[in-house]
Design goal:
Blueprint (H helix, E strand, L loop, with lengths): L21 E11 L5 E8 L11 E2 L2 E3 L7 H13 L3 H4 E6 L3 E4 L6 E11 L11 E8 H5 L4 E8 L2 E10 L2 E4 H12 L11
Parallel strand pairs: 1-7
Antiparallel strand pairs: 1-2, 1-4, 2-3, 2-8, 5-7, 6-7, 9-10, 10-11
């Protein structure tokens, strides 16, 4: 799969009430490999006490701050802070994906997350900060392959849920990151389907 075949004329779903809620944004960053393939960047969050998502795989990003003119600017700032990847200088903005709703950490209040897609055209060297344990580039072909789809058992107060996920080496991509990945791949004519259990 190469970027030339990508159909990035998306029509993302925008939540009509998003401006009344807390906002966050993330960056889905891809690069073309020397053999013509495409890889997508994930971070593994550093483990921190009190953070329910610590250790999870995610896309770089975070909450909007007063100095951020737009959610997209917040994604670019947070990505630079977390990973050293400068999307303003070396990223080529491609598209916006659909808004997703979640809750703020340790609060019940909802928060809207907006994903943005970039092509990375910079150097390979990056410098993650203390919030990031690992940075991993994963082939889109691998992420799309049905044999790499699985289920994650997630325990809640109401019982155990089987959450769809993609497993790569020792990593597990699930939750909101998996939903964003599904939308990105769906716009490329790829549908994620679980392998038979």
């Amino acid at each position: 799969m190469t970027p030339k075949r990508w159909k990035l004329n998306m029509r993302p779903h925008e939540l009509p009430f998003r401006r009344r809620l807390a906002r966050a944004s993330v960056a889905l960053i891809y690069r073309q490999t020397e053999d013509g393939g495409v890889e997508l960047l994930f971070i593994q969050r550093a483990r921190r006490a009190g953070d329910p998502w610590s250790g999870d795989m995610a896309f770089p990003g975070g909450r909007m701050q007063p100095e951020d003119a737009t959610p997209r600017a917040a994604a670019e700032r947070e990505t630079l802070e977390e990973t050293g990847v400068d999307l303003v200088r070396h990223g080529h903005f491609q598209a916006r994906l659909s808004d997703l709703i979640t809750r703020q950490h340790s609060r019940l209040r909802p928060m809207v997350i907006t994903p943005y897609v970039y092509e990375w055209r910079g150097a390979q060297a990056v410098s993650p900060n203390h919030e990031v344990a690992q940075m991993v580039w994963i082939s889109l072909d691998y992420l799309a392959a049905k044999e790499n789809q699985s289920k994650l058992l997630w325990r809640t107060r109401l019982g155990t849920l089987k959450m769809p996920c993609c497993r790569y080496q020792g990593y597990c991509i699930w939750g909101l990151s998996y939903s964003m990945l599904q939308e990105l791949l769906a716009h490329q004519g790829i549908n994620l389907r679980l392998a038979p259990e």
